[in-house]
Write a structure and sequence with these properties.
The structure is a homodimer. By secondary structure, chain A is an alpha/beta fold. Chain A folds into two domains: 194 residues, Alpha-Beta Barrel (TIM Barrel); 123 residues, D-serine dehydratase-like domain (Lyase, Ornithine Decarboxylase, Chain A, domain 1, Beta Barrel), CATH 2.40.37. Chain A has twelve helices and 17 strands. In chain A, the strands form two sheets. In chain A, strands 2-9-8-7-6-5-4-3 form an eight-stranded parallel beta sheet. In chain A, strands 10-11-14-13-12-15 form a six-stranded antiparallel β-barrel.
Chain lengths: 387, 387
């Protein structure tokens, strides 16, 4: 610190252009260690979802090895992480037939990427593409454990077996996969434990149906950040997928999966105005920097567009980003809280915790990495987006 | 079309990777011509807001000259458009003092960029930076015409004059500026006419207060897409700013500013699944492709995350993107409409009109340009994002 060369090179939070995305790597490391410990003790492997971070630097830290396993939500993620050395991926969005050529190119490059499907049409397309290339594309059948999105009902043996039998006509039936997306709506610890149990039962039941019919099912994959942290039994499960746990966010805090000081991501913003008679402080982080995710608005405590902290990351009690335009945010006291607005002057800086780490991250080109309450920016890690 | 070389080079909508952003340039050209005609007839100039498009190709078409004038919402936009030859810009977000150095560098490069402010602290910072550089930075005082965000109340003569007098101690008082953001909540034509009138009265009143006190006020700037299209009197106004009019969107349609076939932007998506018993079609456009802007949810007709059209851009009656996850969208019949879900098969393509063009555009790296019902992609225009 006393070396003038080092001092000249040091970038601090106060030096950054705003708005920008701040990552507290201490919190991230703690979040990763917490889930890893938990899954090791339960004897299942972790296949982190890289859609939250979209960064090779974060991926390297969150994966259990440099080659994976990992989960991706786009084929651009797959290609990017393949170039970074990841060899074992599941593309966990239902496959469109015209994306199979890209999947095959990745596989030819030595990446074991599997696809996901829940219709016989997709299974036939995968089998046909596999036969045409003389190389089996592995696929997992998506199971609908809670009705929130896609997947085959776990007791729909007819549909499961029709898909499985269509797939093995050239393709490879790698296993079954589910995601308890409805767990984001849980409000109690018991509801989280129940969502995890329902998720496990669904995917294990589907695996059994396939195996009883003589079909292979080596992989039994489930996961969501809430259920990964509240499952009490993972017997029959081979791997857990989770994404947002690496950073956590206000929605996860509202569910009870993390505490406020586990949230590793924030947006640094600068005060640009006041409407004093209204109790408003204007900042240069609007929805373009925070996203329009209002996930906490359905929870008992709405955080508006984000929870406001001082520049060191310490939350102001009940101060939220109550409203947002494209590049303007309005900081106010949470209605009904009786809190006092801090004395924020033009040019002062705040950090704002996001409702949803995946959505907020997606709007930024990279992370400025700090550790704990230090204001020294240790690194800049690029992110990517798009398809 | 019969030339094999040309045929080989032709890219069609069916060839594109999904999701991606489609721009119908015929509709865009029509939207631009409509507002330009209107403002010419009213004798005011157009200073389009380039935050909607963030594209040099669109900017060139929407501006009245290659050098501007234009409005921007970030200094990254300012630098990008300056590099593309734009010489006359207003950075229409309250200036943070630590951004003045960047403004000064742009001005040294020959770009007449003005800043916006509404506090005496900002005015003093602009004046001080101007004196230090020996070059006056021009600033407009933001006027609060409808209480929706920032700005000085138009009848707050004390605050207006204090700011104006602080500014001219080295800086340049360029004029006054307002934005009728509350017009987005209008529900009737009369409410739009009234919002436009209120916007004009506020900014003209503030200009008069400054001039009566002997301060300069050459620019009187106002605008929003709704009020720009419904103002009946713009006397005393020198320029109109508007952004979303270039593309329009479902929020603007809900307000009554455009028709569905004026909306120039859509997201091309592929069918990836069904939940037939629920009447759901799954597509590969989730909120990452559409944004989480639910602007129509407060309007009489909610469009969910978007209105679904066939690949030619023709809307299906009452078929909406009712729900969305990161990379999954759920297409359904609008509740209560009694419409019939079209027979969309795995791999079929749809185009989805967005609630908010600015928010949806921000998630994509570029535009695939088509014209009318043609499926030929004429061009790819890059977009940029970030700060």
């Amino acid at each position: 610190m006393t070396n003038p060369d080092t001092a000249a090179a040091t970038v601090r939070l106060a030096d950054l252009e705003t708005p920008c995305l701040i990552l507290d790597a201490d919190r991230m490391d703690r979040n990763i260690a917490r889930l890893r410990r938990r899954l090791v003790s339960m004897g299942v492997s972790l296949r982190p979802h890289l859609k939250t971070a979209k960064s090779a630097d974060v991926a390297r830290r969150v994966m259990t090895s440099a080659a994976g396993p990992a989960t991706v939500s786009t084929l651009k993620e797959a290609a990017y992480f393949a170039a970074a050395g990841v060899k074992d991926m599941i593309y966990a969005v239902g496959i469109a037939p015209d994306k199979l050529a890209k999947v095959q190119r990745l596989r030819q490059d030595g990446v074991d990427i599997a696809v996901v499907l829940d219709t016989v049409e997709q299974a036939e397309a995968v089998a046909a593409a596999s036969r045409a290339a003389g190389h089996a594309i592995p696929a997992l059948i998506e199971i609908d454990c809670d009705g929130h999105r896609s997947g085959v009902l776990p007791n729909d043996a007819h549909r499961l077996l029709t898909i499985g039998r269509a797939l093995v006509q050239g393709g490879e039936l790698r296993g079954v996969l589910t995601h308890a997306g409805a767990s984001y709506g849980a409000r109690t610890e018991q509801a989280l434990v129940d969502a995890a149990s329902q998720e496990r039962c669904a995917v294990v039941q589907a695996a059994q149906i396939l195996r009883d019919a003589g079909l292979p099912c080596p992989v039994v994959s489930l996961g969501s950040t809430p259920t990964a942290h509240f499952a009490t039994d993972l017997s029959g499960v081979t791997e857990v997928r989770a994404g947002v746990f690496v950073f956590f966010d206000l929605v996860m805090m509202g569910i009870g999966v993390c505490k406020v000081d586990d949230i590793a991501l924030s947006v640094l913003a600068t005060v640009i105005g006041h409407q004093r008679e209204k109790g408003w402080v204007l900042v240069d982080a609007g929805w373009m920097a925070m996203s329009q995710d209002r996930g906490t608005s359905k929870q008992p405590v709405s955080q508006g567009y984000g929870l406001v902290c001082d520049i060191s990351g310490k939350p102001y009690a009940d101060i939220i980003l109550a409203d947002a335009n494209q590049e303007h945010g309005i900081v106010t006291v949470r209605p009904g809280s009786g809190a006092t607005l801090p004395d924020l002057k033009i040019g002062d800086r705040v950090r704002i915790l996001p409702n949803h780490a995946c959505a907020t991250g997606a709007l930024h080109a990279g992370y400025k990495v700090v550790r704990g309450t230090s204001d020294v920016v240790e690194a800049s890690w690029p992110r990517f987006g798009g398809w």
